[in-house]
Write a structure and sequence with these properties.
It comes from Mycolicibacterium lutetiense. This protein has 210 residues and is α/β, with parallel strands linked by helices. It is built from eight helices and six strands; from the N terminus they run H-H-E-H-E-E-H-E-H-E-H-E-H-H. Strand 3, helix 4 and strand 4 form a beta-alpha-beta unit. The radius of gyration is 18 Å and the shape is globular. The protein starts with a helix and ends in an 18-residue tail after the last helix.
Length: 210
């Protein structure tokens, strides 16, 4: 976003917010852009427009050596951030599968911020956590060897910046990002965070796949 703002000749002002308050605040005009790792979904596109900038999936993390399999986690405590796709879609679907096979549901432990969810796993308050793949990768990187991946990345989908429905800002963000992709700055930013595997080559407005 710093690179996008510089391209547009603007200075960004960042404001921290609870995840589930961001889209309503964009709708209400309190924020111009919501950029906190939103998966661009058809449901969210009913509320705001998205400019896609990355491709990410979900990924689990566990304490090193815990041996947890996300596909067989019935009855386990799994930490998520409230209102994320992991909270609203992934965990209900996994718990439903558990119930259908006669196993106990996943015990979903919800937190207002991702740092608290990650800490819960490190402190043994949860068996594992599920978050967007770059978020999980960063949590593992920051854990000083205490956390590791559990399973593979799954359900890859586009990330998008949220703006008000019909806002001309969407086209400006899209064009600025295409410029950064074309001149190599986008790749440089992704490489700085070890996130090259999520790069896209063409940003679109409202590119949800589901």
């Amino acid at each position: 976003m710093n690179a996008i703002a510089a391209t547009l000749g603007l200075t960004p002002e960042y404001r921290a917010s609870l995840f589930d308050k961001i889209i309503p605040s964009v709708q209400g005009g309190n924020y111009n852009v919501g950029m906190s790792s939103f998966t661009d979904s058809k449901k969210r596109e009913e509320q705001v427009d998205f400019v896609t900038y990355f491709s990410a999936g979900s990924a689990w993390a566990q304490k090193v050596g815990a041996g947890i399999n996300p596909e067989d986690a019935c009855g386990m405590k799994v930490a998520v951030q409230t209102a994320t796709v992991q909270d609203t879609e992934e965990m209900p679907a996994r718990s439903k599968k558990c119930a259908e096979s006669g196993k106990p549901a996943i015990n979903v432990v919800k937190f207002d911020d991702q740092t608290a969810a990650t800490s819960a796993v490190m402190l043994g308050q949860a068996d594992a956590m599920s978050a967007d793949s770059p978020v999980t990768a960063y949590a593992i990187k920051q854990s000083n060897g205490k956390l590791e991946a559990a399973g593979e990345i799954f359900d890859s989908a586009p990330y998008g910046w949220a703006v008000q429905k019909g806002s001309p800002l969407a086209a400006s963000l899209q064009q600025a990002l295409q410029h950064l992709i074309d001149n190599g700055v986008y790749k440089q930013v992704a490489a700085n965070w070890g996130a090259e595997n999520g790069m896209i080559d063409k940003p679109v407005i409202n590119g949800a796949t589901s």
